[in-house]
Amino acid sequence: MIALYVFLGLLAFLSLIIIKKTVELKNGRQAAAADRAKMKIERLTSFGIVKNLSILPLIDYYAERPDLKTEPGVSYLLKADDTLILMDVGFNAKKEHPSPLLHNMQAMNVSPKDLDMIFISHAHLDHLGGMKNQKEKTFSLSQGPVALSGIPVYAPVPLSASSWNPGPKTHVITEPKVLKPGIASIGVIPRFLFLMGQTLENALAVNVEGKGIVLIIGCGHQTIERVIERTLALFDTPIYAIIGGLHFPVGGGRIMIGPVNIQRLVGSDNPPWKSIRETDVQSAIAAIKKVKPKIVALSPHDSSDWSLDQFRKAFGDAYVDIRVGKEIVI
Ligand SMILES: [Zn+2]
Ligand SMILES: [Zn+2]
Known about the structure:
single chain; 8 helices; Metallo-beta-lactamase, Chain A; 6-stranded mixed β-sheet
């Protein structure tokens, strides 16, 4: 009898939590929609252009060589003419020093001293260097000293460098903004996620001479449909490439606790029983096909092998794998 009461008590408690979360989600979704509607997006004039662009994945879920470390996080090194940009700083789930990011940088002869700018797409643990950073609103390249003096850091929310990375000052950018000629942030596109709450994510756009706009995306919580819509609203130049995370952990995820697919739970603005599914992947593919990009590369850090396969089949020769150590030259 006591066991039955305990069971009913637990059931009632769980139901209350789900009801509370569902109400929060409904209100949060409405607030995010209102925030999106409020943003006045004007065309970015005098954007500028770069002659050359390459993207070297420093952290992602798969690697090109066995000596490079992988994890379900993101860090990409962009070389736009002479400007070196570090986009996101990986996960470092085991709190190591050197972190997988630092290990890979050393293995590929990339020195933090050479960086001109750090761009943080959004404040989730797999892009900030770990859970502690997410909680403390900081970011770190490793759990040991890495000096970053003088480098500007751009983030969509107030963030400071952790005590391991003294020097840089973070600039919060939520609006679309040219960071250097030919390199711009497309501005945040707010979305309310079931477990993570209000999420402000930014993406980079680089205008490559003779090619067009190359989009580099972190986790893709904005939805690719909205990223495309924003990009078309900002620039006259067509979209040439879409590269990065779009968050499709369908039929499996990179962070599992037992049978629970954590990425599927945290990355959706629907409750768990209506979370990310196959039809979302197909809608994204259809939206991307409409703008006819010449290069499409889906990050495996937050998408399943099933989703990667769908993209591979859909885009054929235009599809490029994202692997740590494999440079994508535009
Ligand atoms: Zn991510
Ligand atoms: Zn994320």
